[in-house]
Write a structure and sequence with these properties.
The complex is a heterodimer. By secondary structure, chain A is mostly helical. In chain A, about 70% of the residues lie in helices and about 5% in strands. Chain A is built from four helices and one strand, in the order ααααβ. Chain A has helices at about 5-50, 55-70, 75-80, 85-90, and one strand at about 105. The longest helix of chain A is centred in the first third of the chain and has 46 residues, at about 5-50. By secondary structure, chain B is an alpha+beta fold. Chain B is built from eight helices and 18 strands. Chain B has helices at about 30-45, 55-60, 70-85, 95-100, 115-120, 160-175, 265-280, 315-324, and strands at about 5-10, 15-20, 65-70, 140-145, 150, 180-185, 190, 200-205, 215, 220-225, 230-235, 240, 245, 250, 255-265, 290-295, 300-305, 310-315. The radius of gyration of chain B is 19 Å and the shape is globular. Classes of the chains: A mainly alpha, B alpha+beta. At the A-B interface, helix 3, helix 4 and strand 1 of A face strand 2, strand 6, strand 7, strand 8 and strand 9 of B. Strand 1 of chain A pairs parallel with strand 8 of chain B, so a sheet runs across the interface.
Chain lengths: ~110, ~325
């Protein structure tokens, strides 16, 4: 093969490689951007629909704490608890957090 | 574990307890609980009719009409008059003579007691109690300025449940700046605390079963009165207990064996519980304006609602136990 032909062939190969490299780079960038956009849309949709996973797990913990602090009550107990409004009517507002849970007490005849 | 400091000790012829949670600006929970214990024991020593040199015994022995009295005795005498007035004479602290004649002459801490079932089986027909027509509690006068209690010589006062309610309220006043507290004077319980946290109160079964009911109290008092714990058999074979019908001077069998009353103060809760028991099943619920629990001879249970509704509901004991 004449030398000039060899040079032309080399230039063509070089151009083809550059084109292939450029195409690969564009594909990589496109895929990355697409993936990012897809994930962002997914997270955005989750937030907009009101199902923030962080917030929802926090609510569950609060509810458990509340349940743990209160014994299950029967309907009669629920009725009786309405009586407490009168008893607590003159109570002072809490001024400091209590580090304790009041222990149950038993009332019996003596 | 609640984290509260709790002390249990013998007092008022039974077991008393103090629960204190958290420190106040001036006192630790431990220090406040111990001071409360000492205060309750002091009140017991002053107001017990079973201690010969107690202030109450000295007042009861005095031949004078007007007797010099300390603040505690003045409070007790004033509470006795208020109880008589509030109950229409049913809660009568001047029934000490009939009570002793019925057999309640000592603290009965070592006396063999009669079971509630046997006492009910041998009891006379049920009927509501009536006030003593003489209403001698009306003759008691208190002059707090002079520090005297006046009454006809020979009229003796029985501290009974009044002293327990008084003591619970007295000690509660000194604990109110702690986040949580409960003062349990052998069944008369005062509850409160600056943190305004609700506390569960279980109502004991007079027949010895599981607790019958549960209240949640943030600030207030609960008292239980009944005929079960201090019952005995008299020499003639008839059953007796410490709650007298003032009209007859005999132990009252009204058809109710135990009443638990809610109220803003332990003194009032104690009077309401006794009054409801003595009124009998037909009128007892009306005597519980803040709510409570009635237990009848047949072991059935009535939970009385508080001021928001006047209706009462009756639930058989077995169902209550199943629900629990």
């Amino acid at each position: 093969m004449p030398n000039e032909d060899r040079r032309r062939l080399a230039r063509l190969r070089l151009r083809a490689r550059r084109a292939r490299d450029g195409e690969l780079r564009r594909r990589a960038i496109f895929l990355s951007l697409s993936l990012f956009a897809l994930l962002w849309v997914a997270v955005f949709a989750q937030m907009v629909s009101g199902h923030d996973p962080v917030l929802s797990s926090g609510t569950r913990v609060a509810a458990k704490t509340k349940q743990a602090a209160r014994h299950p009550t029967s309907s009669a107990q629920a009725q009786a608890s309405t009586n407490q409004d009168e008893l607590t009517g003159t109570s002072s507002t809490a001024t400091q957090p209590a580090p304790v849970t009041p222990a149950p007490v038993v009332t019996s005849q003596s | 574990m609640s984290g509260e400091t709790a002390l249990r000790f013998g007092c008022f012829g039974a077991t008393a307890a103090v629960h204190v949670g958290g420190s106040s600006p001036t006192h630790s929970a431990e220090g406040a609980a111990e001071r409360s214990r000492q205060r309750l024991l002091d009140v017991h020593r002053s107001l017990s009719r079973f201690i010969a040199d107690s202030e109450l015994s000295r007042l009861n022995r005095s031949p004078l009409t007007a007797v010099a009295a300390g603040p505690l005795i003045c409070s007790l005498a004033g509470a006795a008059v208020a109880a008589g007035r509030r109950s229409g004479g049913l809660v009568d602290a001047t029934q000490l003579g009939p009570l002793e004649r019925a057999g309640y002459e000592d603290s009965m801490e070592t006396t063999a007691t009669l079971s509630l079932e046997l006492a009910l089986a041998a009891a006379p027909p049920r009927r509501p109690a009536t006030p003593d027509p003489q209403a001698r509690w009306r003759t008691i006068e208190v002059d707090e300025r002079l520090g005297t209690v006046s009454r006809p010589p020979g009229l003796r006062l029985d501290s009974g449940g009044i002293a327990k309610g008084l003591a619970a309220d007295l000690v509660a006043a000194s604990l109110r700046s702690h986040p949580t507290f409960a003062v349990d004077c052998a069944g008369d319980i005062r509850i409160g605390g600056a943190a305004a946290l609700p506390r569960n109160v279980l109502v004991d079964d007079p027949f010895g079963g599981e607790p019958l009911h549960e209240f949640e109290v943030t600030h207030g008092a609960v008292a239980t009165s009944g005929i079960g714990r201090r019952a005995w058999l008299r020499p003639d074979g008839s059953p007796a207990h410490h709650l007298l019908d003032p009209g007859s001077g005999q132990p009252a069998f009204t058809g109710i064996v135990q009443v638990t009353a809610l109220a803003p103060t332990a003194q009032l809760a104690e009077v309401l519980a006794k009054t409801a028991l003595l009124r009998g099943p037909q009128e007892a619920a009306r005597e519980l304006p803040y709510g409570g629990v009635l237990v009848f001879d047949d072991r059935s249970l009535e939970v009385v609602r508080g001021p928001s509704t006047n209706a009462a509901i009756t639930i058989p004991t077995e169902i209550m136990r199943l629900a629990a």
